[in-house]
Amino acid sequence: MAAEAAAKAAGGDAGAEVRPSGGDEAAGVQVPINPTPNQQRVLDALVRRGQAMGWLVPMSEVTLGRVLGEGEFGVTYLGCWRHAKVAVKIVRLRHAAELTSFLREVETMSYIRHPNVVPFLGACLTAPDKLSLLSEFMDGGTLQDWLHPGGLPAPGTASGTILHPVKPLVERLKMAHQVALGMCPFESCRPAALHRDLKPANVYLDHTGVARVGDLGLSRRLLDEARSSLTGETGTYLYMAPEVMRHEVYDSKADVWSWGVMLSECITCALPYGHTYMTPVQVAMAVAEEQLAPEVPKTVHEEVQLVLRLACQFDPEMRPDFASLADMLGHAIEHMEAAQNGRPTLLSSIQSSLLGSWSGAWGWGTAYPRAGQGQAAKAGPRVRRMPGAAEAQQPTAQGQEGREVKEGQQQAQER
């Protein structure tokens, strides 16, 4: 099974984050990369596009400062460019996979402009030893830091008592709502773009506290010829969709699952699946076998419960798109804020009908498939059972009483 193979390859908890395999070069050694013909074509096209659109940046114009972070594919510095603070990500060219990842990130970010996406400023593509990407500096930290100011609990431990102050639930839901809005342009651009590593650590907050999706190192444009090739494990185990873990063909609905896990984390303010005492690899195996999904707290608003269940359906086709999820969660937040302020809303009278229409539109039943039933238990549309002939002929107590009253009135009139 794919999940078991992943667990063996991961070698335990160290495999909580999965990246595409590279080449034969030793890890950590800086080596010159000779681009493949396809990579060179992409690079040349990006250079021409950057020159035409004005985002091709000479590295000589950028001043590097302190290190902001270090990831699998490179180091991010606080920089200065044209008298503005910027985040400068310089890639490590250890093998061809990292060059491909960088080119994908530049391509994706150069196309997408949205208030909830980290603003792309430019890229340096002409210095082979310092390929870099410039984005607006987000001085609010990450959503992970915002949710867990006291630090993350160790993998494989229960959620337990949260020692740090917890933000109000509505504020946490607003963060998830902003992330959903930020993912909408990924789905709507043509060809569609996949993030493939959506998690709180890859969502950044600007100086006003607005959440912005970033770190697109694993992003991929969903070209027609690539639809049948997206089958490898990419991302982080705790947020990875079951079809990705099973090495099945996947699309943007894999990002929807990751967002659903993030929504669960925003609701509980605890590490996903922390109540299970399972390691990330064990979680991945259980999710791949459809034995485990993010918990849905019964104490939150029913519309929020619905959004979470819809986002984390095991069947990708049953998951709504980000635009629909953002709309549903936005309505839920409005209702919660109105209830807190003690005032009715115009939508309160039709809240239940909206809830029913959303459920019916996506064929959602009542809950996840029961554990232990595997893929055969995928949620399907609710079927209303029609009464049989014998049942239809049997009058109800209320109907019988109504007929007796009507017959009595007729007899009185005849007299």
Automatic annotation (TrEMBL):
InterPro entries: Kinase-like_dom_sf, Prot_kinase_dom, Protein_kinase_ATP_BS, Ser-Thr/Tyr_kinase_cat_dom, Ser/Thr_Kinases-Pseudokinases. Keywords: ATP-binding, Nucleotide-binding. Residues 401-415 have a biased composition (Basic and acidic residues). ATP binds at K89. Residues 8-35, 372-415 are annotated as: Disordered. GO terms for molecular function: ATP binding; protein serine/threonine kinase activity. PROSITE patterns: PROTEIN_KINASE_ATP (PS00107), PROTEIN_KINASE_DOM (PS50011). Residues 62-334 form the Protein kinase domain. Pfam families: PK_Tyr_Ser-Thr. This is Protein kinase domain-containing protein. It comes from Edaphochlamys debaryana.
